[in-house]
């Protein structure tokens, strides 16, 4: 089970992925500003993971099987 499933249709629009990473990064800044290093570090890790999964390594899936894949599935 993945923490974030980048193939989920919810993550398809770019603005959703940017907003999610931005919110995690913003909350990281709030925690560090308030002197909470432990929570700041936790949210920094979450923000970095979300950035990597949703922006850096994101590969959109078409959701439509290609003709070669369809013929292999029927065999």
Report a brief summary of the structure.
The protein is mainly alpha-helical.
Secondary-structure map:
Blueprint: H1 14-33, H2 37-56, H3 67-74
Which key features would you list for this structure?
about 80 residues, mainly alpha, 3 helices, elongated
Major sheet summary line: none
Helix and strand run: HHH
Helix content: 55-70%
C-alpha geometry:
elongated
Structural class: mainly alpha
Q: Mean of the pLDDT scores?
A: 85
Number of strand elements: 0
**Unreliable stretches, pLDDT < 50, 5 or more residues?**
none
Q: What Rg, in angstroms, do the CA atoms define?
A: 17 Å
Distance between the termini: 29 Å
Explain what you see.
The two termini are 29 Å apart. It contains three helices and no strands. Helix 1 packs antiparallel against helix 2. It has 75 residues and is mainly alpha-helical. It has one domain. It is 64% helix and 0% strand.
